[in-house]
Amino acid sequence: MKRDAVLTIRLPAADGRMQEFAVHEPRRFAKPARPFTRVAFAAAHVVADPLSTKEPWLEPAIHWEATLAYRRHLWSWGFAVAEAMDTAQRGMGLDWPASLELIARSLAEAKRTPGARIACGAGTDHLAPGPHPIERIVAAYEEQCEAIERLGGRIILMASRALAASARSPDDYARVYDRILARVREPVIIHWLGEMFDPALAGYWGAADHGAAMEVCLDIIRRNAAKVDGIKISLLDKEKEIVMRRRLPAGVRMYTGDDFNFAELIEGDAEGHSDALLGIFDAIAPAASAALSALAAGDRATYHDILAPTVPLSRHVFCAPTRFYKTGVVFLAWLNGHQDHFVMVGGQQSARHILHFAELFRLADRAGLLADPELACARMRQWLAVHGLA
User: Fold this and answer.
1) What are 185-219's pLDDT values in tens digits?
2) I want to staple 87 with a disulfide (CB 3.0 to 4.6 A). Which of 43, 158, 187, 288 is the partner?
3) DSSP string computed for 136-154
4) Separation between Cα atoms, residue 205 and residue 228, nearest integer Å
5) What is the largest CA-CA distance in the chain?
C-alpha cells in the first residue's frame, strides 16, 4: 500500500555519508476482535531503570512499571506473554533472582488483566558457569520450576548452559528432561535455543548435528508427550522446523522461534502449521496482531501484505551476532514511545553499531511501524547527536 512521506531525517549510510531519508505515515492497525487461530506468544523485553545506582554490568536494575506496561501493551494486541526468556536478557544481564521477581510481578499483573495469558522461563541459570554433576542440574531445574509453580505460573523449560557444559552423551539430556517432565504439574513448552542465539548451547541434546540432536529431542518428547504442550525451536532454519513439526506426537505443538521465516511457518501448509513464540512479536506487535487476525478470517493476502515488510526488519534485528537482537527490540520500543530512554540491563544498548541502528530505522519505517514519526525522528536525531552525528 502507498503511504505518504511526512518528514525527512538525515541518517548515516554504508559509505559513511549522511543521507536524507523520507519518513512515512505509519500503518494503522485495529486491535483484534476475536482470538487468533494460532497460539501466539510474544517474548517480552524488560525496561531498565536508568536512574538506578546499581552497576549495569553487574546487577540488573529494572523499571517495573514501564516493564509491566509493556506486557499490558502486548496483551492488548491479543498476544500471550513469554516471560523471563532470552528476549528479557535472561543470561545476558538478567539473573535468576531478578527473573523470579519479574515472573512474580508479571503473573500478578496477568491476574488483574482480563484474558491475559502468560508462561514463564525456568532454567538453571543460578548455577555457576561451567560443568556440574547431572543431579545438581536436575535439582536446579526443579528449584526454578517449583518457584514458578508456587506462583501459579505455567513453565517454558529453557535450554541449560550448565547441561550443555556437563552432559557427556544424549543419555544425560534424557535423564534430566525425563526427571523434570515427570514432576511438573502441567504440560510445559520446551525451548531448543540454537547456538546462533547462545554459543554456550552448541551441541545441545548431545549432538553437534541438528538432525541427530532432533532425534534425541523427539525421543524425549514422545516418552513424555502428556507433559509437553509443545516445543519452540530457534534454529533459524525453516526446513528443520518443518521436518520436526511433522514428526511431533499428536497434540504436541510446534512453536516457531524462527524470526527469519515466521510468516510462512505460521501460515503453514497442507500438512500443518506452526504456532508462535517469537521475540520479534515484541517489536512488531500491532502488525503481527493484524496479520494473525487476517489469517483467522481466511484473508491470506492481507496476512502477507502486512507481514511481508516486517520480515526484512526482523532479519536485520536478528542478524549475526544474533544474540544481540535484544538491542534492536528495545531500540524500537524507545523510538515508539514505550519507554523514555534507550538504556538496557547489562549495558546492552552498546551491542550494535551505528549503521545497524540507522538501517533498523529505515526498515521499521518501510514496515509502517514508526507509530509517531515526529517522536521517532526526534529520538533518532537525539541519539545520533550523542554519537557526534547531528
Assistant:
1) 999 999 999 999 999 999 999 999 999 999 999 99
2) 43
3) HHHHHHHHHHHHHHHTT--
4) 17
5) 61
Angle between helices 134-150 and 170-183 (to 10 degrees): 30
CA distance 372 to 380: 12
Closest CA to 78 of 26, 121, 42, 119: 42
Place of cell 502428556: 226
Distance CA 369, CA 362 (A): 10
Residue located via cell numbers 501448509: 269
The sign of the torsion formed by the CA atoms of 274, 280, 281, 284 equals negative
The rounded mean pLDDT for the chain is: 97
Q: Coil, strand or helix: which one is 281?
A: helix
- Side-chain half-sphere CA neighbours of 12 within 13 A: 18
Distance of alpha carbon 82 from its chain centroid, rounded?
Answer: 8
DSSP assignment of 340-352: S----GGGGGGSS
Nearest to 278 by CA among 290, 294, 267, 266: 266
Contact 130, 165 (CB under 8 A): yes
Domains of the chain: 36-322 (3.20.20.70)
Cβ contact 275:253 at 8 Å: yes
User: ∠ CA 314-372-282 to the nearest 5 degrees?
Assistant: 35
Distance CA 141, CA 16 (A): 48
Query: Distances in Å between the alpha carbon of 260 and those of 78, 135, 311, 350?
Result: 22, 37, 7, 23
Residue range 110-120, pLDDT digits in tens: 999 999 999 99
